[in-house]
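Build the 3D complex.
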Amino acid sequence: MAQNKTYKIREIASLLGLNFVGDGDCEISGIGSLRAAKSGQLSFLSNRRYADQLSQTQASVVILEERHLDSCETNALVSTSPYVSFARATELFKPLVRMDSGIHSSASINESANIPKSVFIGPNVVVEENVCIGANTIIGANSFIGHGSIVGQNCHFQANVTVYSNIKIGDNVILHSGAVVGSDGFGFAFDGEKSIKIHQLGGVQIGNEVEVGASSTIDRGAIEDTIIGDGVKIDNQVQIGHNCKIGDHTVICGCVGIAGSVTIGKNCIMGGGSGAVGHIAIADNVQVSAMSLVSESINKAGTYSSGTWQMKTSEWKRSNVRFQQLDGMYKRIRNLEKSKKEY
Amino acid sequence: MAQNKTYKIREIASLLGLNFVGDGDCEISGIGSLRAAKSGQLSFLSNRRYADQLSQTQASVVILEERHLDSCETNALVSTSPYVSFARATELFKPLVRMDSGIHSSASINESANIPKSVFIGPNVVVEENVCIGANTIIGANSFIGHGSIVGQNCHFQANVTVYSNIKIGDNVILHSGAVVGSDGFGFAFDGEKSIKIHQLGGVQIGNEVEVGASSTIDRGAIEDTIIGDGVKIDNQVQIGHNCKIGDHTVICGCVGIAGSVTIGKNCIMGGGSGAVGHIAIADNVQVSAMSLVSESINKAGTYSSGTWQMKTSEWKRSNVRFQQLDGMYKRIRNLEKSKKEY
Amino acid sequence: MAQNKTYKIREIASLLGLNFVGDGDCEISGIGSLRAAKSGQLSFLSNRRYADQLSQTQASVVILEERHLDSCETNALVSTSPYVSFARATELFKPLVRMDSGIHSSASINESANIPKSVFIGPNVVVEENVCIGANTIIGANSFIGHGSIVGQNCHFQANVTVYSNIKIGDNVILHSGAVVGSDGFGFAFDGEKSIKIHQLGGVQIGNEVEVGASSTIDRGAIEDTIIGDGVKIDNQVQIGHNCKIGDHTVICGCVGIAGSVTIGKNCIMGGGSGAVGHIAIADNVQVSAMSLVSESINKAGTYSSGTWQMKTSEWKRSNVRFQQLDGMYKRIRNLEKSKKEY
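Done.
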């Protein structure tokens, strides 16, 4: 991958607000791990486990905490949070996307749409009537934005994104390929014979600085809107049902499924493959571990789990036989205790 | 969202087949929940839990059971099934989709395709040879329909839908964005060194009144067809393997995975994130709870579950340590019982 | 589905390297199961369970092991591995895809892209700068290939596939509709207030003979590349996180989620809906059963599982009450044993 920008170490220090130790004029043109970085690249040490790689790295500069300076034989950028500083450094070296603003000739743009000149619209993009798009936003090839939707500034929609009609999306939002925002919530009334569709009349509101992963889906609300707070990060293959409210800065890992009308607090982490049943509430600062199901509301911050640990299948089968007998086992213990007392 | 249709209460009563109480000439222009509805909107009371909201609602008319009439201070529409009546009311107020029929100039339509004038084909849609599309069907932007596929009447495919070749889809079918119908079933024969692809020669048959959610995938059969019955409702992110047969009016919630050659009966509900292993059969009227795995056939109607409940992670770890020792615990109980008898 | 090729049995025998018994001039024009095959079709017997269908099949030829010849009343093709031979036979009868090579007039191809004349590029395909595509590759309608990506020979990308920039894909690779390769890995550094994006500077390398199912997603690496080995088969709705390394010929069934930086060995099988947490390693020849979570590294070949078996929900609830008390139950057993010793 082209990492074709170059910075002097003193420039990086200035851009990241860090002090440097060593040769400020040394030029850096990319990023590598401590183990794999080459001369001319920046690396970082944030996890103590890798501290012994520091002395042997080929990197030309390492972001690290002050206490590791002594073990560093190359140039250093001193940070109280090397991982955060590293994250900011990736911004400097991300590949240049050489997109001239403007609308590709093959795009189908309704004349009523409001699109500033700084916007980039890729090939075969379809923008329906009354759509508003903010300055400097990029809409990738073959994407679709339905009528009446509003997209903020500095957003980046990758190729093949679908935004239904009447959706509101904030600033600095990233939607990855295959993401779908505003599909119908799954609502039906069973009349005794068949399911009558409840047309989904609400929309979706997505805050600022939100990222939605590839092939993730966010349903529109039944009557009111589905709401995704500011700074929410959603990984790939996630499903968010209608009328959910996801609190600011909550992180939802890959393959999570959230049923309808779930309220999740701020700064939560839903682990990969976890789920939540409908109509429950999860407090702020809750962490749910991988592939766990939240089947009732959680009122208190903390870490929650369900399921069982991996075992060799032969042993797991034996545990499962007993799991099915567990209530009986409990009663047998109680009987034993009773008869002990009778002695 | 534009809810720009207006009906008098007496019109709604007539359209839904309900009696009204109050001012039949009052005009209604949208739908809201009891709590949030404004004057001029319709609401409904179907869940007793919300009965105390009835007296304070601002809605101009409420669909409710007769027994709640006394507590209703606004106009009422009396229904034996308020939720079903509400579902039908959403049909009245769903946003107008102002699509003129016809084929967008940017669509690529094979000349052998059979497309009545009443059909709407959006921008960049690709329709291959020998496709037949029924009257009044809408094919959203950037969708693809492979050669030889047949689509019924009054269907609505949203943007970015993919239908492979030689698929049969009934009438009134909704496919949401990202849905894929007819991808290859996952079939390989391992020759001792590598996996030899079994080309998937079957197709998919989808009945009438089926809805398929965003990013859901339905594989074509290996030799015979995968079959989705009438009235089946499939939520987002669902995977249905090759040669499955899903019975009429079964409901499949989000993130469900059904392996190959599974037969599911009629009127079943597969809860969100649940799954079924391959080559099993599930009877009619079975309900599987969220994130449960069906690993053997179910012959009898009822509710089935697997997995464990959510716990604080620290306590859950203690239970898991013991789960791994469960067979040993069982034997220790048995030994205790034996030695008790020996007294 | 059109199965419009016809072969004489002696031709099939020659193409598959098998001996035949019976009428070598008999013409075969399709494939069916033993039960459903019609005259003129080929069938196979690989699972003993279906041996009693052999005498009644209408198939004109059956692939079978020598020991079943006596029970076969029609023509036979004798194989030591009937299932593998059947897989090879499906190749003969797969539907003809009549695509003339060339670039559809509606495609947007950057002039710097390197595309041999034997390549087929469908309608509305977007190919960015410096993309290289190998001979005889097919890129389906509405697909996108980002700048700098390299695609091998004889690949088949179905409609609506997304390949981000700077991805390397080998020969004979199949990507199904909705597949996304190269989306950003899910990497953020939390600065105490919000998540700072770690731009994902790595790419994805996909080996030869790989198949990726519909709506599956493979993230690009953070710094180094995500790597998918030769012969890996990935089903629908699978998520593979950044920096994973998947060993050659491993099979990943539908709905699997693999978190970031997971190394999976060769010839593994990840069962449907299973998952793996981040930063672990799984040895060669490991099989993980359906909907099981791998939460720590597996160093030894074998079969692993987690979770519990399906039960009637009422009984399952009783087991779950006791699961929550399991550590207490263990201690009560220990106390009983202690007090027994004291006798």
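Chain C touches chain A through 80 residues (CB under 8 Å).
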